[in-house]
Amino acid sequence: xxxxxxxxxxxxxxxxxxxSNLKSLLKIGxxxxxxxxxxxxxLNDEVLDLVWWCATNTDQQAEIGRFxxxxxxxxxxSVGQQIAHxxxxxxxxxxxxxxxxxxxxxxxxxxxxxxxAKDRLWKQGQRKTAFLVGFIERMxxxxxxxxxxxx
Length: 151
Prior knowledge:
Helix 5 packs across helix 7, helix 8 (about 95-105) crosses helix 10 and helix 9 (about 115-125) crosses helix 10 (about 130-140). This protein has helices at about 10, 20-25, 30-40, 45-55, 60-70, 70-75, 80-90, 95-105, 115-125, 130-140. With about 150 residues, it is mostly helical. The longest helix is centred in the middle third of the chain and has 13 residues, at about 80-90. It folds into two domains: about 1-55, no CATH class; about 55-145, no CATH class.
């Protein structure tokens, strides 16, 4: 019986993985190990690429992407833009209001997405207020000015 020890799941999701050898933890191949590394305080540029690669095409890819984008260095890294583009494409399939708010907030940091994409999100917010909450949390008074055409 191999894999990721189930008793570690609880504390690893809280960022308590203190191992300095995070690459070895990823070799387990279990999604909980990937989540643990994504939440680790020891995450660095070198391991970031591997974490995102391991998360790709998993059920938890969006969740892991949101975990990663909460880190400032990830938002400035090229992987941060990859994550942002994935989350932007995944947004229409997100039904949870809290996840919509959090994702919108995370996408608006730095220059992760283009101004056109930000304008599109703002427009979507006219129909779904969860997007607007993400803008309010992140932008603090610097909102796009888009005219909505009535039909």
